[in-house]
């Protein structure tokens, strides 16, 4: 029997396992697919909420802690596993923002570097952007991480940590609750038991709790993205315009995203989205017109009210915990979300006030 059993081996599930294992606990980690193959793989990897001033303070608190910790985490994972998550510390431009004054006021309030820059500065940094931009908001400390590589690095960390048991390709059929206490999960061919259970199953978390009669307002929200096989340097920084973005990778590839679709657990890509995303890409960087489109995919985000995640004990069932509902900011909020839950489980002083994320009173 493990000390902890985590359902969901995305970035949040794996970081939670890592935190708990480092305390000396025995941890089992189970996923219906392979590690980090759902929204953790499908996202873009910007280490900041899009238009961060439009989010509530609980999201800002988690994001601020995570943005700093990613620098240390990426280096540790590279040294530990030999797999570089490719954290890029290049900053982010936001072009055509209507509420600039609110953005700048937010930056001052939360001590986040942000400034309005003119066209000369913008085109000096990104000469291949569409012509005619007069100014932009510039956040020089915003990073991006190559999330598929982060997933591979974390999976390798799970493999080489002796007190972590990894169970992939195993769907949880039922949670086992005895006398009001969560004690394990039933798989198709086995049972796994633990002292404490943690649901970190992203968009599927609501279904798992629903089987216990608990209604969790976390729903799948599909996002489609595309990847261009561009040469290095065509775009060097994250560029956000009209609610969509371009994200460059170290090898030159450029992601464009993303759609927001409430269509249940449908992950099919569509021609309409492909056309729309291609138009977005060319509207931001016309030079992408002649660049090979390499890949088009879709993933499911765990949508939640105002994007505020649920982190902590599940009311009414002893020893059952949740870390889900990060919505569009799963990668952004992952380090802080997992550290906060680990603090609660290990009875340490929390790094962030846990009250806004508690399920009590929200479900």
UniProtKB/TrEMBL annotation:
Keywords recorded for this protein, A-Z: Oxidoreductase, Thiamine biosynthesis
UniProt GO molecular function: flavin adenine dinucleotide binding; glycine oxidase activity
A Pfam family hit: DAO
GO BP terms in the entry: thiamine biosynthetic process; thiamine diphosphate biosynthetic process
Leader peptide range in chain numbering: none
SUPFAM superfamilies per UniProt: FAD-linked reductases, C-terminal domain, FAD/NAD(P)-binding domain
Listed EC numbers: 1.4.3.19
CC annotations in GO: cytoplasm
FAD dependent oxidoreductase domain segment(s): 3-344
The protein's annotated pathway: Cofactor biosynthesis; thiamine diphosphate biosynthesis
Keyword Oxidoreductase among UniProt keywords: yes
Keyword Oxidoreductase belongs to the record: yes
Protein name in UniProt: Glycine oxidase ThiO
């Amino acid at each position: 029997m493990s000390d902890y059993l985590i359902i969901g081996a995305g970035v949040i599930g794996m970081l939670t396992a890592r935190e708990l294992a480092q305390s000396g606990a025995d941890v089992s980690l189970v996923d219906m697919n392979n590690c980090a193959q759902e929204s953790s793989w499908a996202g873009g990897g910007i280490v900041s909420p899009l238009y961060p001033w439009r989010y509530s303070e609980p999201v800002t608190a988690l994001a601020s802690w995570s943005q700093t910790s990613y620098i240390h985490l990426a280096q540790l994972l590279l040294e530990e596993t030999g797999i570089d998550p490719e954290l890029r510390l290049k900053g982010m431009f936001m072009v055509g923002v209507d509420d600039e004054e609110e953005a700048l006021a937010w930056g001052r309030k939360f001590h986040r570097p942000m400034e309005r820059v003119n066209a000369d500065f913008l085109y000096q940094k990104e000469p291949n952007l569409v012509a005619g931009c007069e100014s932009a908001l510039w956040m020089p400390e915003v990073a991006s991480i190559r999330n598929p590589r982060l997933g591979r690095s974390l999976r390798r960390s799970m493999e080489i940590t002796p007190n972590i048991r990894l169970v992939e390709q195993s769907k949880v059929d039922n949670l086992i609750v005895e006398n009001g206490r969560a004690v394990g999960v039933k798989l198709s061919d086995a049972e796994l038991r633990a002292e404490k259970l943690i649901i970190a199953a992203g968009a599927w978390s609501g279904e798992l709790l629903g089987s216990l009669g608990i209604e969790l307002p976390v729903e799948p929200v599909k996002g489609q993205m595309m990847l261009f096989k561009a040469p290095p340097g065509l775009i060097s920084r994250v560029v956000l315009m009209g609610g969509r973005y371009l994200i460059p990778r170290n090898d030159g590839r450029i992601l464009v995203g993303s759609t927001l679709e409430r269509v249940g657990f449908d992950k099919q890509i569509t021609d309409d989205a492909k056309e729309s995303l291609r138009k977005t890409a060319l509207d931001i960087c016309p030079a992408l017109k002649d660049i090979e489109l390499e890949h088009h995919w879709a993933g499911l985000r765990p949508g939640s009210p105002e994007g505020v995640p649920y982190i902590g004990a599940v009311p009414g069932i002893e020893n059952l915990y949740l870390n889900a509902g990060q919505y569009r900011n799963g990668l952004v909020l992952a380090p802080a979300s997992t550290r906060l839950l680990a603090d609660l489980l290990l009875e340490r002083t929390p790094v962030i006030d846990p009250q806004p994320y508690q399920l009590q009173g929200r479900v």
